[in-house]
Amino acid sequence: MFNAEKFIKEIIEKLKNEITGKALIAFSGGVDSTVCAALVNKAIGDRLIAVHVDTGYMRKNESDNVKKLMEEIGLNYRFIDASKEFFSALKNIEDPEKKRKIIGEKFIRVFEKVAEDEDIEYLVQGTIAPDWIESGGELRDTIKSHHNVGGLPEFMKLKLVEPLRDLYKDEVRKVARELKLSVSERQPFPGPGLAIRIIGEATPERTNIVREACDIVEKEIEAAVENKKMEMPWQYFAVLLPVKSVGVHGDKRAYGYVIAVRAVHSIDAMTCAFSKIPNNIIDKISTRITNTLKDKVNRVVYDITNKPPSTVEWE
């Protein structure tokens, strides 16, 4: 049985011995990176610099909320808007593995620049067990290269520290609860962000579409849960598909994108079952998406696939 209190004490002592200089943590504001930052902050204090990078592929108001979270924890932090660089790096890229690897390397290069300016030796990441298991290596097949594992460049100047590497998501949440972090129950958000919720090229225009659709899915599901109309899924979001379909607006022909809604129940991210959202909630989500994005989207579908055979994210 995993003991969060014991883990916290042991890992803080380990980090005190392991990190002898200044460290940088890639801070997304998710459960993994927040737990990781809180632990390292307890171990080395102001020698830790939390760096949040706005890649342009963030959810609605994500970066503003992350800033507040870093201040809430009392972190020494830096905020970097690298959206133009990330959009440029992903121009004409459609293959999901290439996307993940480009994003992973781009993150490292941004961190290396901060590290050089601040004389930092260590890079801390909130990598957890499913990340490196699914990224393959040795006898494991590559399911998908997580940007913080398979996306790491072969050569980088920083020494890697991964305090949560052997934990699964449910264990990380236990640590978050023990640390009394406000994000303990927050749904996962992939490191590559909305770039992997856009099937095909992740252009600024397509990113804006899926950002709005994701926001609608999140708000409607959270409202339904609050009103006790359904159980809270483990993860829930929208995906922009690379196809267009014929529709009708008023008495005119429309030709727009298709949005897929995905919601799943899981414990450790290794397996999941699709959430059985009530039809009236699905109806409301679909209506809001097509009305809000009526010049862009005219069809909404719901993903009813478990993991396996699918993964949680589409890419």
Number of helices: 9
Strand-residue proportion: 15-25%
Please give the share of residues in helix: 25-40%
Rg is 20 Å
The CATH homologous superfamily of the largest domain is termed HUPs
Kindly state the mean pLDDT as a whole number?
91
Strand order of the largest sheet: 3-2-1-4-5
Give the topology string: H per helix, E per strand.
HEHEHEHHEHEHHEEEHE
Describe the biggest sheet?
5 strands, parallel
Computed structural class:
alpha/beta
CATH A-level architecture of the largest domain: 3-Layer(aba) Sandwich
Shape designation: globular
Contiguous uncertain segments of 5+ residues: 142-151
The CATH topology of the largest domain is given as Rossmann fold
> Would you count the extended β strands for me?
9
CATH class of the largest domain: Alpha Beta
Distance between the termini: 33 Å
Question: TL;DR of this structure?
Answer:
It contains nine helices and nine strands. With 315 residues, it is α/β, with parallel strands linked by helices. The protein has a five-stranded parallel β-sheet, sandwiched between helices. Strands 6, 7, 8 and 9 form a four-stranded mixed β-sheet that branches.
Characterise this structure.
By secondary structure, the chain is an alpha/beta fold. It folds into two domains: 4-178, Rossmann fold; 198-302, GMP Synthetase, Chain A, domain 3 (2-Layer Sandwich), CATH 3.30.300. It has helices spanning 4-18, 31-44, 62-73, 83-89, 96-118, 129-134, 169-178, 204-226, 279-292, and strands at 23-26, 48-54, 77-81, 122-124, 159-161, 235-249, 252-265, 273-274, 297-302. It has a five-stranded parallel sheet, sandwiched between helices. Strands 6, 7, 8 and 9 form a four-stranded mixed sheet that branches. Strand 1, helix 2 (31-44) and strand 2 form a beta-alpha-beta unit. Helix 1 crosses helix 2 (31-44) and helix 2 crosses helix 7 (169-178). The longest helix is centred in the middle third of the chain and has 23 residues, at 96-118. It is globular. The two termini are 33 Å apart.
